[in-house]
Write a structure and sequence with these properties.
The chain is of the alpha/beta class and about 425 residues long. Helices cover about 40% and strands about 15% of the residues.
Length: about 425
């Protein structure tokens, strides 16, 4: 690591510490089954930290002729099972600890899904809303130059994440082409269709979460989907796609929240009209669209991004950022089942409380892995110069998600443990044999 001092977080909200804690808890459970304890301990030691952490300051020329510098990171956790894989986020709260944690979770995620990738994550400390399109393009291209030879179709394949878009991926692919003359665009995924992206990528994370939930909910609820209520925290791409897909599957989505506000209605929400309102910048503390001809707007309540977590619903899906459910608010969670669509949304301390209360948690490394699965499909299509129809993408995605859930569920039964621990056991077994 070179170029900038480490940006630290306090331990209470340090996602990397949470990720390491989760790993150690699972390692303790799994270790007795390994005859070669030394080899196992060495594997856990290797997986407790990134293989490589890149960090530097990127300086670009602003539109007014001045220069400005931005801190940038790329954490490459493990490539034991294939090229490093993980998104790039542009956000003011990006930190070294965050990208290290997210790269570790990505290693578990690709191993649980059993696709031939490792784990990585990157980011720039920036509020992209404060940059012009030209400034954003300069910064995106500078990031590729910062990565240099540490990225490539068989080395590290980045993807979009928070505040990064298909357009940004296209700029990055083009910059990589300038540097290497590689015109295949395989270096990144999450590209637009016109730039060799894959059909089905936009809804992939939400679709994968929906598929896992469809495999799960009948075990824990003795009522039809139409009577199962859902609250979703986060109404960006993942949250909005999940809401739309759950609504189509018959679930009753009654609460949605984004960073500036949220809405709740016992009759269920009109997802399409609500999504259109957010696109038109009508924040959810001023608009409420409920379902049905007899829908009464007077029954609509406005909720915030935090108190939506404590709503009286059957299923809660945190789909925003890390550290949303903590030991401070875990006791307030009423939902029976939590579908963790955001990475690290539940802290280890909170998870202990929730499990003690009998809550069912479908962990992030399983619930939100649909995105990286379809990124893998995009990579395959680019490598083989193929273009799959959307129906084929969905068919292949659903098959992998069902297989992943089955493996995790069977492991949970075998070890008499929760789904997160079972997911990590599956991941560690898949990783350990490659180290």
């Amino acid at each position: 690591m070179a170029g900038i001092p480490a940006r630290k977080l306090n331990n209470m909200n340090n996602p990397y510490e949470h990720a390491v804690t989760q790993l150690k808890l699972v390692a303790e459970k799994l270790r007795p089954q390994y005859e070669d304890k030394s080899r196992f301990d060495n594997a856990i030691s290797l997986l407790s930290k990134p293989t490589q952490l890149l960090a530097d300051k990127l300086t670009i020329i602003m539109d007014d002729g001045s220069t400005e510098s931005f801190e940038a990171y790329r954490s490459q956790h493990s490539n034991a099972r294939g090229p490093y894989k993980g998104g790039i986020r542009f956000h003011p709260d990006v930190s070294e600890e965050e990208v290290k944690a997210l790269s570790m979770w990505m290693s578990w995620k690709t191993a649980v899904a059993d696709i031939p990738y490792g784990g990585a994550k990157g980011g720039i400390i920036v509020d992209p809303k404060k940059l012009s399109s030209r400034e954003l393009q300069r910064l995106s291209r500078a990031y590729v130059r910062f990565l240099g030879t540490n990225v490539g179709p068989w080395i590290d394949v980045p993807a979009p994440d928070v505040n990064t878009t298909p357009e940004i991926m296209a700029w990055m692919a083009n910059e990589y082409e300038k540097i290497t003359s590689d015109r295949t665009k395989v270096v990144v995924t999450g590209k637009s269709i016109k730039n060799e992206g894959s059909l089905g990528r936009i809804s992939a994370t939400g679709r994968g979460g929906r598929e896992v939930l469809l495999q799960t909910y009948k075990k824990y609820f003795d009522k039809p989907a139409s009577q199962i209520t859902v609250a979703i925290q986060g109404f960006g791409n993942v949250g909005s796609q999940l809401a739309r897909l759950l609504d189509q599957s018959g679930f009753k989505v009654i609460a949605l929240a984004e960073v500036q506000g949220g809405i709740w209605h016992s009759d269920g929400l009109d997802i399409d009209r609500t999504l259109q309102a957010t696109i038109q910048k009508e924040i959810l503390k001023k608009t409420c669209y409920c379902k049905g001809k007899q829908c009464h707007l007077t029954k609509c309540h406005f909720v915030g991004p935090k108190n939506i977590l404590s709503q009286d619903v059957d299923i809660l899906a945190p789909a925003a950022l890390e550290n949303q459910i903590t030991k401070e608010n875990a006791h307030q969670i009423k939902a029976k089942l939590i579908l963790e669509m955001a990475n690290g949304a539940i802290t280890p301390e909170a998870e202990k409380i929730l499990l003690k209360k009998g809550k069912i948690i479908i962990p992030d490394v399983l619930a939100n892995s649909g995105g990286v699965v379809v990124s893998y499909f995009e990579w395959l299509q680019n490598l083989n110069n193929e273009h799959w129809e959307k129906a084929l993408v969905y068919q292949k995605l659903n098959k992998i998600m069902r297989r992943a859930y089955k493996n995790v569920d069977e492991t949970a039964k075998k070890y008499k443990t929760d789904l997160r621990t079972a997911s990590y056991i599956v991941a560690l077994k898949n990783l350990e044999k490659k180290l």
